Amino acid sequence: MILYKNMPKIYIIFFIFIFTHQAHALMIIKHNLSASENENSLSYEYAILKLILDKSKDKYGEYQLVKSIKMSQTRAFHELSKVDSEVNIIASMTSIEREKKSSPIRFCLFKGLLGVRIPIVLKSEKERIEKIKTYSDLKKLSAGQVFDWPDTHILDANNMNVIKATIYTGLFPMLVLKRFDIFPLGALEVYQIEKEHEAKYNLSVIEKWAIAYPTGYYFFVNKKNKILEERLNYGFINAIKDGSFDEVFNRYNNNFLQIAKLENRKIFKLKNPILPKTTVFKDKNIWHPLIMKEFSEF
């Protein structure tokens, strides 16, 4: 107190300004999410990121989102581990390895529903593939996936025949050439993707069954970026408390859930050996009821 009494007012005002500026300095957040409304499942991630950043402005101040270059999941996690990186937040399915390298924000963006995989198939093959009844039938089918997706490792671990592509867009011509039978995709993304590619490749979506495994889909940040990690957790908690997370989730995804009719499908449950033990499916604010019902024992 004595120090402040003897200090000229102009210096006190200066120090207050500097402290306030530092406390709420503009936070630059470099991401590789799509902001395009034409890529609905991806623009949903962008909408959630903006939501939780907005819900944290009272404590952490303003922010600026900067779009990074497009990159594979492998490169994105590699970049994320750097101190001065092209990206400081990514969204992805979790795994033991990914959580060792990066810090997950443990609020699942898709409420576990990206672990429910509905296959895209050729229209000419749909009738045959719809008829499968058993796990033995399922394992006779070959599945196409990108080589570095966690889903690829999960299907491999369940002794499925997985045909791997280097890039996502390469899977569609490979399906047309019958390199594999099914292209499993998340329940909340499959119909948008089918709509975008159906005419060119003559595709259809399986209606009677789905594959499911327990997983989370999180935002990830660098382990040393504690401020961003704290901010995202704080914003997510606020968005869940005031109902805005559910509002955005429902606005983007309810239509797909109605089309998918998951409750009427036969579900082939698979194990997920790369699921971190810290993943618990018991919070109704984070997980969809179907996920809690099927995987509450995990």
TrEMBL record:
This is Transporter substrate-binding domain-containing protein. It comes from Silvanigrella paludirubra.
